[in-house]
């Protein structure tokens, strides 16, 4: 099972538990983490709004997760990367989330969120730009300019005068059926990025 389909299965499982019996604190943290991994920011925001106050203030984990969501929604990527790094995930959740994605091996959930955010940002850059400054890519990806050059080299993107990068479209596998909210979120992020 791919990491994305397993994530979606866990999301559906937790959502159905929430509808039937309600969630306990750790399940709220897991569901928020899954929403962040899958870039379901509207769902993450709604989870925040309906979560009990006790969950929001307990040890601050849920608040920190929501800070990541808010930064991504506001397109404040330096803050998003700083917020991601600032979340100390409880070990039970981090270990549980490792099982979600074999692709990243033994890395922790923080890396799942970071890597997925960077992949989405690179895909948007490839779709939206004929050329982009390395400094702008650095901010968008949360990387140093040297790391951006390395990423561009690995993707076989060319660089030109004035520290410009000329992206090539990234080949994406054909999409399976996309949930309604996910499609709307994706279209919204493309439009926001182009503004």
UniProtKB/TrEMBL annotation:
Organism: Notodromas monacha
Pfam families listed in its UniProt record: CSN8_PSD8_EIF3K
Domain CSN8/PSMD8/EIF3K: 28-169
Protein name: CSN8/PSMD8/EIF3K domain-containing protein
InterPro entries hit by this protein: CSN8_PSD8_EIF3K
Species lineage: Eukaryota, Metazoa, Ecdysozoa, Arthropoda, Crustacea
Lineage top rank: taxon: Eukaryota
